[in-house]
Amino acid sequence: MKVLKRNQVILFLLAVMLVTAGYFSATSQMNVMPTSSVGKASASTSNVSNTTETLGDATLVSGGAVVDNDSENIVENTENTVETAQQKEISTYFSETKLQRDTMYSQTLDSYQKMLDSTTISSEQKAIAQQEITRINDEKKAIMIAENLIKTKGFQDIVVFQNGDSVNAIVRADKLSQEEIAQVQNILARELNADISNIHISNK
After folding, report:
1. 80: exposed, middle or buried (C-beta count within 10 Å: 0-12, 13-18, 19+)?
2. HEC profile for 61-113?
3. Which residues of 137-160 are buried (b: 16+ CB within 10 A; e: fewer)?
4. For the domain bounded by 90-203, which CATH number is listed?
5. 64 in the Ramachandran plot: left (φ > 0), alpha (ψ -120 to 50) or beta?
6. How many whole angstroms separate alpha carbon 25 and alpha carbon 160?
7. Pairwise CA distance, residues 157 & 112, whole Å
8. Per residue of the chain (204 residues), what is the pLDDT tens digit?
9. Cα–Cα–Cα angle for 189, 194, 197, rounded to 5 degrees
10. Cβ atoms of residues 181 and 153 within 8 Å
11. Domain ranges of the chain
12. What is the DSSP string of the chain?
């Protein structure tokens, strides 16, 4: 009986020691945080801070408002695209208008040249055809000189038409001042031998 009681006491003491050791072990683990956990916590805090400053390409400003940089860029790019399209359209207008004018001159010259080459028309008609060929070539040359002179004055482009005594000019510009109109008129009057009252100027 004494041996049995002694064994029970020993088992009881061992159990108490195991429970006590387990308690202290758990307490020490709770008080000490691993270094890796601290790093993760710092990184998480840093990410939160960065998120409050920028959300993708959106920027947080005072009062919690969000300015979407992408939206601003889209609006700006759209405006530039519209402006570029308008400029291209205007450039196309001037180039195509000059081409149509020069084509008309070429067709007229071809018609007069055929008259000169024909054997069925009179010499008087051929003389008239030759005079018209000379006049048209002189007119083309004068228009080319006038357009180039006007562009040297700072105008981006211009197209000139002459029909007898009447001269029409279209200048590439948002608007024209009276001084600029007078400048263009003087050049056209001098180079095309036209009266200023017969010179009509518009802008595009």
Report:
1. exposed
2. CHHHCEEEHHHHHHHHHHHHHHHHHHHHHHHHHHHHHHHHHHHHHHHHHHHHH
3. eeebebbeebbebbeeeebebbbb
4. 1.10.287.4300
5. left
6. 100
7. 31
8. 444 445 555 656 655 566 555 555 545 554 444 444 444 444 444 444 444 444 444 444 445 554 455 555 655 565 566 568 888 899 999 999 999 999 999 999 999 999 999 999 999 999 999 999 999 999 999 999 999 999 999 999 999 999 999 999 999 999 999 999 999 999 999 999 999 999 999 999
9. 90
10. no
11. 90-203
12. -HHHHHHHHHHHHHHHHHHHHHHHHHHHHHH---HHHHHHHHHHHHHHHHHHHEETTEEE-GGG-EEEHHHHHHHHHHHHHHHHHHHHHHHHHHHHHHHHHHHHHHHHHHHHHHHHH-SSS-HHHHHHHHHHHHHHHHHHHHHHHHHHHHHHTT-S-EEEEEETTEEEEEE-SS---HHHHHHHHHHHHHHHT--GGGEEEEE-
Q: How many whole angstroms separate alpha carbon 52 and alpha carbon 64? A: 9
CA dist., res. 198 & res. 190, Å (int): 13
Contact 104, 162 (CB under 8 A): no
